[in-house]
Amino acid sequence: MKKITDYEHKKILVLGLAKSGIAAASLLHELGAFVTVNDQKPFEENTAAQSLLEKGIKVICGSHPPELLDEGFELIVKNPGIPYTNPLVSKAMEMNIPIITEIELAYRVSEADIIGITGSNGKTTTTTLIFNMLEEASKNPLIAGNIGTVASEVAMKATSENQMVVELSSFQLMGVDQFKPHIAIITNVYEAHLDYHQTKENYAEAKANITRNQTEDDFLIVNADQEELLELVSFSQAELIPFSTVRYLEKGVSIKEGKVFHFGEEVIGLRDILLPGKHNQENILAAIAAVKILGVGNDAIKRVLATFQGVEHRTQFVAEVNGRRFYNDSKATNILATKSALQAFDQPVVLLAGGLDRGNSFSELVPHMSGVKALILFGETADKLEEAGREAGIQSIYHVDNVEEAVPLSFNVSEPGDVVLLSPACASWDQYKTFEVRGNIFAQAVHKLKQSQ
User: Which amino acid positions bind ATP, per UniProt (predicted)?
Assistant: First the structure.
């Protein structure tokens, strides 16, 4: 860790705890700052706040009072989930108090180069692929950010021998100042998180912050199939490395005649890649572009791609049961993600879907349901999804109470060679605390089914 003096004797407010707030407060305290932590959860229920108090850090809990700013803070480190419309945050902006997120701290203290990955879809898979490929090639990677350990906590332990592979959200990237990854990746940009960003333009601009401070000595890897994305980052000073799944790029990473090429060199055949789907091809191309910069050879890349089954809950292969292949895509909490999952398979699909009703229809799914032979539906949106299924011409549609009931039924209505896909197109909160819980219940039911056959 770099021993910086930027924060020494400065009054700094850490707003919101969770993992990133705890790590930020601890790091700033170690760097000599006068830290105050403010968290909404009451102190008596807040074990994190209690542990920070024991370190000598000032703690204020129960609410986010705007008058707290009267104490004269020179900097705020904000939890990414707290919106800028929060009254305390709004007042801080009016007072011109700088507001950053914890990823900025990680950058400033890290001795390791950072590989930053952002985008609407594919961040976690791309991040994991890069980490696995670097690890396979003995490049000493560390994984951090939205996946794995909080970035500043990892940065405290990183040395110049490491590579920090960091998944980054638009929320985090809104709060950067000097942050500059050596390698930046934007997988794609679609309309998302409008409740936080208000407009797609604001959301896209936040994503573009990943390359804002890059220089000609850095690298920017982008999806060349999105013209608007190329325009968005046209200001970047970094060396641009494009990737494409639809056209061959002599200078970039792309696919031709069933093979992946990196700047004209064949890397791997698509048939040798275990991970299914065109959307995952984008993630694979982006990962190859990144690791090639760091000297990873084709053999290491091939070994990873021949065995990588997917990130948990993201089109993850669970098991094969009497010729049916079961996939867990519980992370598909919106229509766009389920579209991508359906496009991943050429085989007939039994689709398990449903969940929280956010008021939208599912007509956008209809053109992508041509390969769906049966629908098994649950949750608040079951009736709406049935309407979409009928419109798509699907004859076999069933309603069940939950995911656990859906699994044995899916086996009974499928045949060897079929895919059974949990891709709900909805959030889980009507029945399950998180999409992870929903996915785990699905996987457990699949393994129970396999044991019974």
Answer: 119-125
Sign of the dihedral defined by the CA atoms of residues 187, 292, 311, 382, in that order: positive
pLDDT tens digits for range 273-284: 998 888 899 999
Q: Is 412 annotated as a binding residue?
A: no
Has 119 been labeled as part of a binding site? yes
Tell whether domain 11-100 is in CATH 3.40.50.720: yes
Q: What is the pLDDT of residues 149-169, one digit of tens each?
A: 899 999 999 999 999 999 999
The reply to whether 32 sits in an annotated binding site is: no
Unique residue bearing structure tokens 């079929």? 418
What count of other Cβ atoms lies within 10 Å of the Cβ of residue 169? 20
* 128 annotated binding-site participant: no
Residue 374 token pair: 């049966």
Tell me the per-residue pLDDT of 169-188, one tens digit each, with 9 for 90 and over: 988 999 999 999 999 999 99
* Cβ–Cβ < 8 Å for 76, 175: no
Say how far apart CA 36 and CA 39 lie, in whole Å.
Answer: 10
- φ/ψ of 371, rounded to 5, equals -95, 5
End-to-end CA distance of the chain: 54
Q: Strands, E, within 86-168: which ranges? A: 99-100, 113-118, 141-145, 163-167
Residue range 202-230: average pLDDT?
95
User: Most distant CA pair in the chain: distance in Å?
Assistant: 69
CATH of 103-307, picked from 3.40.50.720, 3.40.1190.10, 3.10.310.10, 3.30.428.10, is 3.40.1190.10
